[in-house]
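Writing this down once: the sequence line spells out the residues, with the fold written below as integer tokens. This is how one looks:
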Amino acid sequence: MPLPISCAIITLNEEENIVRCLKALSFIDDIVVVDSGSTDNTVELAKSFGARVMERNFDFYPNQKNYAIEQTKHDWVLAIDADEVVSSGLKTEIINLFSAGEPKEVGFLIPRLTYYLGKWIRFGGFYPNYQIRLFQKSKGKFGGGFVHERVVLETKPKKLKFPLYHFSYKNISDHLHFIDRYSSLFAEEEYRKGKTSSILWALTKASFKGFYMYWIRLGILDGKQGFVLAVLGFYYNFLKYLKLYEKNQSFPSFFVMVDSIHDVKSNVSTKKNSDQIHI
């Protein structure tokens, strides 16, 4: 019999992940999927597994996830992403928690194990990477800014043993897309707080992050995958602070500069001659 727990998931074009995610949730009584305009088969696939699917325009991650939680039937909620999967050990652990009724705790930290380029990543700061994912919605909710949303509880959560599997990126291109998107969100959030940066600061932060991941957190033990993650960790942090630096500058339009070089007089003449400059 399914447990009196709800699961809340937010989605956008997750057809490659959602089936794997939902297959592992057969022990959950109520599954809510909040979609923000998928153009693939995400919604249809979610419905085929009995999920209650709702639509909401995306604004910020905490808002989207809190909305999903508000739609659930039960007070106890498992909040996961579409690219995450409840391991068999975690499933058994959660069932045992509720075997004698509701736990006395208000929430639980779950370790997250990431799969990257054909390998489970155990170093570089990627594991155990505890996240509060199982909690009472009456006692907590998601907080945070544009990025790195997290559950805020009234009391300290207890750690669980078995992991939530995280299938993070399909390939390097997908990882780079994530880096570009999240570095922009970070820069916007920090800019609104009045923070500044510099090219030197971006390089310093990036260098420390790469060194920290590869040597201090022993990413070297993850082999070539650990090296790739450390390099991209450097790149991600460099972009975060470089984009923040860019937001605090008043750069002239590069396109206008190029136009002046090529003596393109106006957008009208450019469109008329169909010879717009692409860089």
User: Anything to note?
Assistant: Residues 223-247 form the longest helix (25 residues). Residues 62 and 142 are 5 Å apart (CA to CA). The chain is about 40% helix and 20% strand.
